[in-house]
Structures are given as structure tokens and as C-alpha cells.
Amino acid sequence: MKRIAFVSTNDTTPWSGSEELWSQTAISMANQGFTVGVNIRGWKQTPINIQKLESLNCRVVRRWYHVHLIFLLIPYYQRITVDRVKVNHESINH
Predict the structure, then answer these.
(1) More confident position, 64 or 85
(2) Which of 39, 32, 38, 25 is nearest to 2 (CA)?
(3) For residues 49 and 15, is the Cβ–Cβ distance under 8 A?
(4) Residue 48 CB: number of other CB atoms within 10 A?
(5) How much is the pTM?
(6) Measuring CA to CA, how many Å separate 51 from each of 1, 10, 46, 47, 61?
(7) Per-residue pLDDT reduced to its tens digit, 28-78
(8) Helices 17-31 and 48-55: angle between axes, nearest 10 degrees
(9) Residue 10's pLDDT is what?
(10) Is residue 63 within 8 Å of residue 40, measured between CB atoms?
């Protein structure tokens, strides 16, 4: 089975244009039979599209820590066997 993971580093708003793009791609891939994993910042209210991903049996993991810590986790994600990894650096200020 093919697998893909989406990692969003957006920590400023629960939903924006980039989330719309990757979530629609994730939905399409889930409908094609991919196993889809999503790593997002946790929000008090879950965006409707995230709920839709969960209803399609996508694995959604919420982060409750500062976004810059994700870069410490990238080596961990690289050890996970997936076919593709998409990291969205939209709101990262270096």
C-alpha cells in the first residue's frame, strides 16, 4: 500500500490557503487508496476539512508544541518509511 505524510508548520491560523491545497490533495489521495498521515498544530476547534480527513481514516496527529520544534523531528520523520513527505514551511521565520 502506498503511503504519504503531510506536515504543516502553520502555527498562526487554523486554516489558510496552503491548508486548503494540501488537504484537498490528501483527500484525493485517500480516495485513491493511499494511507495518509497528517501532522498539524492542535487547535481548540478542529477545522472542518481536518474532520473530513479523519472521516476518511487519515491519521491526523496534532502538535501542541512550538512550530520550530518540528525541525527537530524531521530526522525522525525521515526514518519512517513513506513514499513521499510534504513539509509546508509557509509561516516559518528563520
Answers:
(1) 64
(2) 32
(3) yes
(4) 10
(5) 0.68
(6) 23, 18, 7, 7, 12
(7) 999 999 999 999 999 989 999 999 999 999 999 998 876 666 666 666 656
(8) 10
(9) 86
(10) yes
Buried residues in 56-68 as b, exposed as e (16+ CB within 10 A): eebebeebeeebe
CA dist list (Å): 48 to 10, 17, 18, 30, 69 = 17, 14, 15, 16, 26
CA distance 14 to 44: 9
Supply the pLDDT for residue 54.
95
Q: Where are the alpha helices (DSSP H) in 1-94?
A: 17-31, 48-55, 70-79
Place of cell 502555527: 11
Domains within the chain, CATH numbers bracketed: 3-88 (3.40.50.1100)
Residues comprising the chain, all counted: 94
**Three-class SS state of 6:** strand
